[in-house]
User: Which sequence fits this backbone?
C-alpha cells in the first residue's frame, strides 16, 4: 500500500507537469522526434565542431611541407667604448650610434621525416574523428529510437490496464446483478471487486513508467512532448529470416562503426611510431637568406650599408637530446599495443552484443508468434461465447471474460511487436545501418 501511495504521488506530479505545458504539449511520431532532435542540433553540434577542428589539423600538416618564409626588421642603439688599447691613436674613445638590420629568409625542407610524415598522421587522426563521429551519431539516433519505443510500450501498458479496468467494471456489474438475483454468492462479488482494485493499481504503475520513459524521450525531442503518436493497427512485422540472412557475423566485423573507429585508432598508432622514429633521422633544408644592414656610425668614425645574400643546403644531424626521441618512440609503440588490444576488446564486445541481440530477436519473434496464435484462438472463443450467451447457455460473465482476454491479447501482440522493432533497431545500429524512414514506416508512426 505504501508503494501504491508513493506511485500515486509521482504519477500525479507527472500529470501536473505535463498538463502545465498547455497548448505546446503534443504527441510525436518517430520521424518527428528524429527531426526535432536534428533541428535542435545540440548533440550533433558537438560532433560537427570536433570534425571542423580535425579538418584544420590536416591543413596544418599539409603546411609542414611548404617553405618557411620569414621577414624581420631589427633596430639596435649601440653604445661603444674603448676600455683599453695598445694603439696610441685610439687609446681612448666612446661612440653611440644606431644600427638597422633587415632580414629576409626562406627555408625549404628537402628531407624532414617528422614534417613529411605529419600529413599521413593527420589524415589518420582525421579518419579516427570521422569514425568516432559516426559512432556518436549512430548512438544518439539509436538511443532516441529506444527511448521512443519505451514510451510507446509504456502507453501500451496503460491502454492494457485501462482495458482491464473497463472489463472488470463490466464484470463487477454483471456479478452484482447475479448476486442481487440470487444466482451467485457474495464472495464472488468480493473477488471481482478485488480484481478491479488490482487493475487500478496496475494502471498507476503504468503511468509512473510512462513518466519515466518520457523523461528519456524529452532529452531528444523536447520538453513539450507528452507521448508518441502510434497506430497499433498499422504495426508492421519484423522479417527475422531477412535478419538472419543479411546480418551475419562477417558483415558485422566489416560494418560495425565501433570496430571501424578502433581500427582507425590503431592506424594512428602506426603513424605515430613512424613520426617518432623520424625524429632520429637527419634533416636537409634549402636555405636562402638576404640581409641588409645600415650602420650610422662606429667608434672609429663613419657609417656603412651592407647587403649579404646567402644560399645553400643545411644538413642537421640529431646527436643527443637527453633520450627524449627514443622515449617518444617507446611511447608510440606502447600506444600501438594498447590500440591493437582495444581492437580485440571492441571486436569481442561487438560480437557479444550481436549474439545477445540476435537471441533477443528470436525470443521476441517467438513471443509475438505465440501471442498472435493465442489471439486467434481467443477471437474464436469470443465468437463461441457470444453464441452460447445468445442461446442462453452461458452467463454474461463468461462472455465478458472472453472479451477481456481478447482485448488484452490484442494489446499484448502490439507490445510484443514494439519490442521486436526496438531489438531490430538496436541490431541496425550495431551494424551502422539505421534507416529512420524504414523504421518509422514499419512502426506505424
Assistant:
Amino acid at each position: 500500500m505504501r508503494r501504491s501511495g508513493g506511485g500515486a504521488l509521482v504519477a500525479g506530479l507527472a500529470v501536473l507537469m505535463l498538463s502545465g505545458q498547455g497548448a505546446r504539449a503534443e504527441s510525436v511520431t518517430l520521424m518527428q522526434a528524429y527531426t526535432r532532435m536534428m533541428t535542435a542540433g545540440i548533440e550533433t553540434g558537438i560532433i560537427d565542431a570536433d570534425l571542423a577542428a580535425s579538418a584544420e589539423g590536416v591543413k596544418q600538416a599539409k603546411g609542414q611541407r611548404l617553405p618557411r618564409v620569414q621577414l624581420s626588421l631589427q633596430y639596435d642603439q649601440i653604445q661603444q667604448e674603448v676600455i683599453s688599447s695598445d694603439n696610441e691613436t685610439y687609446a681612448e674613445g666612446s661612440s653611440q650610434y644606431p644600427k638597422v638590420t633587415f632580414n629576409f629568409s626562406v627555408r625549404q625542407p628537402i628531407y624532414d621525416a617528422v614534417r613529411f610524415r605529419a600529413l599521413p598522421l593527420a589524415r589518420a587522426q582525421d579518419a579516427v574523428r570521422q569514425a568516432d563521429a559516426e559512432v556518436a551519431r549512430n548512438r544518439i539516433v539509436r538511443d532516441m529510437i529506444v527511448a521512443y519505443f519505451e514510451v510507446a510500450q509504456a502507453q501500451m501498458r496503460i491502454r492494457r490496464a485501462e482495458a482491464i479496468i473497463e472489463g472488470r467494471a463490466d464484470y463487477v456489474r454483471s456479478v452484482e446483478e447475479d448476486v442481487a438475483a440470487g444466482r451467485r454468492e457474495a464472495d464472488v462479488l468480493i473477488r471481482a471487486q478485488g480484481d478491479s482494485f488490482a487493475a487500478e493499481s496496475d494502471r498507476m504503475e503504468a503511468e509512473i513508467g510512462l513518466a519515466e520513459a518520457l523523461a528519456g524521450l524529452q532529452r531528444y525531442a523536447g520538453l513539450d512532448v507528452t507521448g508518441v503518436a502510434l497506430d497499433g493497427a498499422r504495426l508492421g512485422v519484423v522479417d527475422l529470416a531477412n535478419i538472419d540472412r543479411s546480418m551475419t557475423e562477417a558483415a558485422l566485423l566489416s560494418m560495425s562503426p565501433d570496430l571501424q573507429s578502433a581500427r582507425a585508432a590503431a592506424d594512428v598508432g602506426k603513424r605515430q611510431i613512424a613520426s617518432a622514429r623520424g625524429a632520429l633521422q637527419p634533416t636537409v633544408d634549402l636555405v636562402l637568406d638576404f640581409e641588409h644592414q645600415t650602420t650610422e656610425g662606429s667608434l672609429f668614425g663613419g657609417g656603412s650599408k651592407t647587403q649579404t645574400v646567402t644560399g645553400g643546403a643545411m644538413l642537421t644531424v640529431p646527436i643527443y637530446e637527453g633520450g627524449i626521441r627514443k622515449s617518444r618512440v617507446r611511447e608510440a609503440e606502447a600506444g600501438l599495443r594498447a590500440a591493437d588490444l582495444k581492437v580485440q576488446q571492441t571486436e569481442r564486445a561487438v560480437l557479444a552484443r550481436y549474439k545477445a541481440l540476435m537471441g533477443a530477436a528470436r525470443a521476441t519473434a517467438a513471443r509475438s508468434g505465440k501471442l498472435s496464435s493465442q489471439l486467434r484462438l481467443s477471437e474464436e472463443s469470443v465468437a463461441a461465447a457470444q453464441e452460447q450467451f445468445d442461446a442462453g447457455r452461458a452467463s454474461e460473465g463468461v462472455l465478458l471474460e472472453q472479451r477481456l482476454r481478447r482485448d488484452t491479447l490484442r494489446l499484448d501482440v502490439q507490445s510484443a511487436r514494439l519490442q521486436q522493432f526496438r531489438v531490430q533497431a538496436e541490431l541496425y545500429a550495431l551494424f551502422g545501418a539505421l534507416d529512420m524512414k524504414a523504421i518509422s514506416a514499419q512502426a506505424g508512426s
About this structure: Residues 125 and 177 are 78 Å apart (CA to CA). The longest strand covers residues 94-111. The radius of gyration is 39 Å.
